[in-house]
Design goal:
The protein is an alpha+beta fold. The protein has 4 helices and 10 strands; from the N terminus they run H-H-E-E-E-E-E-E-E-E-H-E-E-H. Strand 1 and strand 2 form a beta hairpin.
Length: 260
């Protein structure tokens, strides 16, 4: 359910078909060899070896197919994932800071600019990303924990990092996966093609019925790895703006409470 997902699925399908052909081919060859060259039929060994080059030609053909798949499909897809990262001004730009065992999601607010984050300001209860509210552009920033909200049919750019160990940010249904590494900010980008409600309709009658989109950690990151799970909500544009407005109201109310 992402623009990038179809290409990845296509490569996976090609590779699996190739592996099936190789499995059947080499498995059949192995069985024929066992029958044809069994000891009861070959009382004396033939030291002449293979007299034709069929096997060499088959191996060369397999190698050529694998090279075509690698250079013709896999490399271009990987290059688009690495090189075609949209600029912050051309996308919905977010930050995700992973930690044991949660996903902290930083939204820049209406101005589209992030405030500064400082390690010394990190408070696991009140300020898990260390946001400096006194810094420029930070006044309208807000963050969520394990709740990622994005609009449909919009380019999404996420700058991914980690506070502690290596995690792996995964959105399986969107074919998105990227390691989050301490000390590095790694961009990952994608574009959803259907809302969460539309996705749920496709699961009716299947084992996935009623189960939404999850953020998975695909890297063993400690004893609590099993519970490092977040949730993705894909809105239409109107609902996404309504959600942003709601978060802005919460932020304003919390600031008023702090002033009091």
């Amino acid at each position: 359910m992402s623009v990038q997902g179809s290409g990845i699925d296509e490569v996976n399908a090609i590779i699996h078909w190739l592996m099936l052909v190789l499995f059947v081919g080499w498995g059949g060859f192995f069985i024929v060899t066992l029958i044809k060259f069994r000891a009861s039929k070959n009382k004396k060994a033939n030291y002449g070896g293979v007299q034709t080059h069929v096997s060499s030609l088959l191996e060369a053909a397999v190698a050529v197919i694998e090279i075509v798949v690698l250079f013709g499909f896999a490399f271009p897809i990987w290059a688009s994932r690495v090189n075609d990262v949209p600029a912050p001004s051309e996308s919905v730009h977010l930050r995700i800071i992973a930690q044991q065992f949660a996903w902290n999601i930083h939204y820049p607010g209406p101005d589209g600019k992030f405030g500064e984050v400082r390690p010394e300001l990190v408070d696991e209860q009140e300020n898990p990303i260390g946001l400096d509210r006194e810094s420029e552009n930070a006044e309208d920033d807000f963050f969520t924990i394990n709740q990622l909200h994005i609009p449909v049919h919009e380019k999404i750019r996420i700058d991914l990092t980690s506070k502690d160990v290596i995690h792996s940010f995964g959105l399986p249904e969107l074919r998105v996966k990227q390691d989050a590494i301490p000390g590095m900010s790694i961009p990952v980008h994608f574009e959803a093609t259907m809302t969460s409600d539309e996705f749920l309709k496709t699961t009716i009658g299947t084992a996935r019925q009623g189960q939404g989109l999850e953020i998975a950690c695909a890297q063993l990151c400690g004893l609590g790895h099993y519970r490092m799970k977040g949730f993705l909500t894909v809105h239409n544009n109107e609902d996404y703006q309504a959600w942003l407005d709601e978060q802005a109201e919460y932020l304003l109310e919390s600031e008023e409470d702090d002033d009091w």
